Give the backbone structure.
Amino acid sequence: MLSVEALSELEEKIKEVLPEKLTEILSRTNRTEELKDLLRLLGLSDLLQNENDYITYKDGIIVVIGATEVKEEVLLAIGKNLGFNKNRFEFCLDYKAAQKYDFRKMEYSSFYRVILFGPTPHSGHGKGDSGSIISGIEKRPGYPRVERLLNGQELKITRSNFRQKLEQLLAEGFLTPDTEF
C-alpha cells in the first residue's frame, strides 16, 4: 500500500498523463472487455449504458400470441374501446403458427412494446435453451416486455383478461392510447 505522499505524487502524474492517454485507455479496455470493470472501479458505471438496454416506444406494437377461441376482430374491438388503433396490434392466434413465429424481428426493435402470451407450444423459434418459448423470450435481452394472459393458473386468452392486461399497462403508463384512428 502506498503512503499518502506517494499516492499524492501518483495522482499528480496521472492527472498530467490522463488527458493524452484517455482515448487509448478507453479503446484498449473496450477491446479487451475490461471497460465495465474500469468504470466500476472508478465509480463511474452509470456512464456506460447497458448494451442490453434499448428504448421501446409507448405507442409501439402490441403482439398477441397464443391459441384462443376469441376472434381477432373481438380483440381489436376491445383495443379500440381502450383507445388503440388496430394498427398497433399484431396477432398470431393459432397454436401451431406460434411455434413457427419469428421472434427475431422484435430483437432490439424499438417498435415492439409488449408481447401478450396465451397458450403456445413449449418448443419453437424463440425457445433457445429454455423450457418454453415464453421463458426463452423473457430471459433473452433485447426483447419487448412479456406479459402472460392467465385464467387462474393456466395460459388462456379471454376477452376479460385481454382487456384487464391492456388497462393495467395503460394505468402503469407503459402504453399510451392513440390519438388518431
